[in-house]
Amino acid sequence: MATTNRSQGDAAGAATGVRGAVQGENPVTIPAMNKGEVFTSFDVEAFEVPSGRDEAWRFTPMRRLRGLHDGKAKADGTATVAVTGPDAPAVSVETVDRQDARLGRAGAPADRVSAQAYSSFETATVVTIGAEAAPAEPVVVTLTGPGTGKTAFGHVQVQALRHSKAVLILDQRGAGTYAENVEILLGDGADLTVVAIQDWSDDAVHVGSHHLDVGRDAKLTHVVVTLGGELVRIAPTLKYSGPGGSADLWGVYFADDGQHFEHHLLVDHAQPHCRSNVVYKGALQGDPTSKKPDARTVWIGDVLIRAEAEGTDTYELNRNLVLTDGARADSVPNLEIETGEIRRASHASTTGRFDDEQLFYLRSRGIPEREARQLVVRGFFHEIIDRIPVEVVRARLSDAIEAELAAAGS
């Protein structure tokens, strides 16, 4: 199977007639009762223009968004989507227009940029893994940005029908400014692994919302890898549409001088006997001689356990390794519990430099300091990289981390 389509932004394609849009001329601001009750809409005009004073955007350098947040960014470029992998009936690929009734099923936009992306794409790519299908090879969705100085908007939906089992790689690369929504829906009993790789060029700005819907007794593994781009902001929102669902959300990111990476997660437990495990690890390194802004990462992890979600088992962890002076990592885990009838709910967050004891141990055995530091960083990411079930992806990430370390002389 191999298919290619070009996803082009169209600011004229406003939310008129879009299912779920909020009507009216004035933006609506509704205070959230809890983390899961934020205002959502498919209509961009239903949202106020965000600023750095807003809680959801307080870490984001708004000027570096290139107008994605306030409507100044107009679609003047094209992003190319190519899909390769198993053939039908195991996997099918469609290019659909914005009126396709399937679009938006996984969740509505919760911010203005996501709504702008939904209101502006012309065509969407829909990948469907057939019921009870178990393709041996991964499905690879390669998205190439619109190019330097260009802006585009896009939409990808992945459906894993009941009792299917598959691996999908979303490989994003190239230059330009790009905003998108990614929908991932798992039917009852489905088992899907998604590896989303942000390997953009140095000048790229990418804002993406991932809407994750896990069905009854389904299992999702969602891996976010962020290595390239000037500014990358990924926001996965997970909900369960049936009891017994299980989700592992893993992340790896490595920020260099001038890069700003953000990951905003929300896990909404609204069904009984579901499980979630969140582990994100990041490293940062800057260059004291550079005139660019220093490396910066932001991780926000929100977990909500609603009153009806008895038997929930959830854990979230974020760890950051700061390799140079000046680099900054912000980590904010949040846990909101509305019922005491749960199995487990805990979170942890650490940000620090090299472990002196680890370095001393390695150097005491004759390993030079530079090599010892590289070994510590490799081991830091080892836990997540080794869980990715595709050898070529594991090797690519290991090589990318080696390249990052070599470039900084760590």
TrEMBL record:
Residue span, SUF system FeS cluster assembly SufBD core domain: 148-380
Pfam families for the chain: SUFBD_core
Tree of life domain: Bacteria
SUPFAM superfamilies: Stabilizer of iron transporter SufD
Region listing for Disordered, in residue ranges: 1-20
Ranges of biased composition (kind: Low complexity): 9-20
InterPro entries in alphabetical order: Fe-S_cluster_assembly_SufBD, SUF_FeS_clus_asmbl_SufBD_core, SUF_FeS_clus_asmbl_SufBD_sf, SUF_FeS_clus_asmbl_SufD
Family statement: Belongs to the iron-sulfur cluster assembly SufBD family.
Annotated protein name in UniProt: Fe-S cluster assembly protein SufD
Taxonomic source organism: Tomitella cavernea
Lineage: Bacteria, Bacillati, Actinomycetota, Actinomycetes, Mycobacteriales
